[in-house]
Amino acid sequence: MTEAVCLADYESLAAEVLPAEVFDFVAGGSGAETTLRRNRTALDAVSVIPKVLAGVAEADPSTTLLGQSVAFPVAVAPMAYQQLVHPDGELGLAKAASGIPYVISMLSSHPLEEIAAAADIAWFQLYWLRDRGVVESLIDRAVAAGCSALMVTVDVPVMGRRLRDVRNSFVLPTGVIAANLVEGSTGRAHQAAGAVSAVAAHTASVFNPALGWDDLEWLAGRSSLPLVVKGILDPEDARRAVAIGAAGVVVSNHGGRQLDGSVASINALPAVVDAIGNDCQVLLDSGVRGATDILRALASGAAGVLLGRPLLWALAVDDAGTALVRLRDDLIDVLLLAGCADVAAAARLATSRES
């Protein structure tokens, strides 16, 4: 295959051009990768019941996420070190994300200010660091750069043990840095001795594993940006996030990269929506690979999805812009096939789940 005809095609194309250890870093999950596989199996088990004779000749995929008009219900998920797959890194993917939110990773390989300037809609993603002063500085920088939302990832007290990276003794290559941290240094992420992941060692040195609800409440009041909490799977956790002021919740198991054996995100979604769906927007992350998955998420109660790995594969072969245009076109087709004139109609579709 020399050209992608759908979003899923990009993975095999990227495998042909990326170093094996970089491909593994992006593709891999934690532990035995049970949850990584489960995300896909669970999405495929969701069947949407389409409407017929709906009299729908055209479908409009546009919607609103966090009060902002977007071209279709997708945001680019926060993903670290995108220069691993392409020299343009985050700048290339941000420019490709026309009309949709681009979520800037705290561990981006370009400074957040440059990425925000390249994006149509920029949100900033934050991990909880040992140095609260650095957290405050990052928030202030995101506000000054024009980011319109703050997303805090709460499911990484420590990095899940990703065995592909351990077996590869994975290190960041020279020149790929955490550009938003002090002096752009990634410290230990460039050094490995034996069967260890240098990226995991770096994370352990700078992340604070003791993030709690009091910290999240402080964060909600630290800026005027709407707060999105990413990494929620339990409905009670979702209720507590709303209680401290979250404007959005992302149902996510980190793409199968954290607790192996955790529930598939799509399976956790309905209970979270039932718990808080009238109080804030709920987004789905983990395992999304195309327009059919977006429809499944909408019909299961999500306002939209975060899309990750497929866009890195497309970036790797310098085709991210085309990939997103094709995805939007595919979503329009899927909406029409389901008898839906718009995203609101998709949210009213019934679903069936195979055991």
TrEMBL record:
Residues covered by the FMN hydroxy acid dehydrogenase domain: 1-355
Stated name of the protein: Alpha-hydroxy acid oxidase
Keywords: Flavoprotein, FMN, Oxidoreductase
InterPro entries noted in UniProt: Aldolase_TIM, Alpha-hydoxy_acid_DH_FMN, FMN-dep_DH, FMN_HAD, FMN_hydac_DH_AS
Cofactor(s) listed: FMN
Sequence similarity: Belongs to the FMN-dependent alpha-hydroxy acid dehydrogenase family.
One MF annotation (Gene Ontology) recorded for this entry: oxidoreductase activity
PANTHER family (alphabetical): 2-HYDROXYACID OXIDASE 1, S -2-HYDROXY-ACID OXIDASE-RELATED
Xref: CDD domains: alpha_hydroxyacid_oxid_FMN
E.C. number: 1.-.-.-
